[in-house]
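User: For a reading group we're discussing how well predicted structures match intuition. Take GIY-YIG domain-containing protein. Before you show the prediction, I'll give you the sequence so everyone sees exactly what went in.
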Amino acid sequence: MIVFNRYLLFEKIKTLSKNTTNSNCSDLDLLTRNKNKEVDNIDLSVLISRCKSYNISIQLESLKLREYIFKNSLDIKPRFSTNLSKDQLDDLLFFIKYKPFIVCENDKNLGFSIVSKENYEYLCNIHLNDEESYEVIRNDPLEDCIDKINKTLFELTLNSNISQRIFELLLIKNKCDLGKFRILPKIHKNILLKPFVENVSHILKDSQQLLQDCEKLYIDKGPFIYSGDFESLYTNMEPNHCCNTLTEYLKDKLPFNLISPLGQRKGVAMGCKCGPRLANLYIFLLERHWLSTIKEVILYARFIDDILIIAKQKINLSNLFECFLYLKLNIKNDKKVEFLDLIVSYDKFLCKLKFNVFIKPTNNGNYLLPSSNHPDFIYKNIPLALFTSIRRICTSLIDYLLYSFKISLCLLKRNYDFNLICKISNQIGVLNRSDLLPYKNRSHNKISNSIKTCFAFDSNLKFLKNNIRDQFLVTKKEFSWLNNYDPFIFYKLFPNLAMLTVHNSKIYNYPCYFFTDKCQQYNCKICNYIFSLNYVTVGNKIIPLMSSGNCDTSNIVYIILCIKCNEFYIGETSKTLRTRIYQHLYSIKKFRLFLDENVLGYHFRSSKHNIYTDFRTCIFKKGFSSDFNRKSIEADLIQFFKNILTVKLINSKFPFFQSKTILSFAKQI
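Assistant: Thanks. Here is the predicted 3D structure of GIY-YIG domain-containing protein, as structure tokens, for the group to look at:
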């Protein structure tokens, strides 16, 4: 059974207001009519909760599309395989819970390191107890910060400085978390460990821009080539000096708050999203005076804390060191220097800079295994990206052949297809290097005109993507307004080993198994009628239960099974399962043919039925936020059994809900 999330289904904007169960009149519109109200008197928590909890109906088009997808998928027999056996998964869970050490992600994507818990705690305390870098904050400033942001946004909206749409887009509705301190091993340097903050976001250009700038750069005679990098740039940046320098330059156009929620006194948190831009701008303000005075420099390029200098003659480095004040800059001058992933040298014959691939000695070539649970295009894109990068970097074709051969050996060791590697390597090798230097112009027209659908990728359900596309075309024929749209389907991945062992992510219990258990109370007469499996079968189809419970569970949608006839009765109740099933059993036992109207009594009191062996019940779903949602699930499940599975139901009345707010196989959010 394929489980769909309600947010995978689209909504028709034109008729949205007609099919909602609650008024969709925005609270913001109501509040902006009276602009004399003070912002401080408005309960933003109420406004945010209302923005999150609109009971929007699922459109008929969505229901039709789901029906077509289900019908087309029921006859498909997918394979059920996994890259981890049950024993391996159990061992992994045990390892994650009881491992006596910490698994740390290395800097520069160089694999992982193992540090004992005692040493890890000792290293963390060394950094956190440094009073020059960190201070203790007694109260969490995050809630006040969020409240100020939301109130400022609301005030801007009241004054018509921003639109309602922008307000709803920027409003912080969900819970935010503070950054977490952890250790990042730098095994490519002599210094082993440096502090690092979670949620790193690298949003800068790579060395490709340098290759573009040097493509038409001709140098008459051999230049002096310098390569340098700052020592612990983020950690050593003085917040006060950095803040004063930036605010002086920006003339109060942008507000800065360099003190992180972690109370970091010295340096800038490497995990904050503005960190790279902040460091880039700060270093630029320090170096710009030196750049305006130096004349012998042919090329000056910098990638955050890495610097490349090409000069006509030897330069005086002392002036460069002085412009960076307290920051320590290490400079290397040689015929060949390493800069990012490049080896830069001078070609006397061509009078140009020559580039080659720089591979760190610690690079182990552990590329993604083809047996991993990833889409097929990933395993094609990895060799393609590697060979393209090598061809773009290497000025000489001979160097490309050398490094592509080395990469091919690494990929073969990881069980990549030999024919695919050779094919891609040859195709990239014949390309003109200059054609690979410009950045690609990525078009987003397809995405903007598409209805986006996202679900977790499973290699056992590869057919699902094409199935959705095909059934969307069928739905288009029934609803003409969809002709202007196409489905855009993309995946999210399950947590991998790195996320599980390093970041302590939770393992998805997929598939989840839910059972209806006996309450085991003394003299409970309903326990004997509990259906003990976690699914019900309809022919050769398996329908999973979506919640666990027992006789005392209330607010449920339940199923009654006739074991003899393999027929079903679907119902809902706000009462407990025990109370509702007892009412059904009482009605069956007291049923009088031709005198009483009770479908269950008529069915189970007919000939050759034994209520003690043929009557079974189970909970399908529980815990609904409203009676309407519970009745919506009941109606949807009845229609699913009746129209999609074409099952004969014991029910005589079939509720019809045009405005459904939740679906049977969707997780409640």
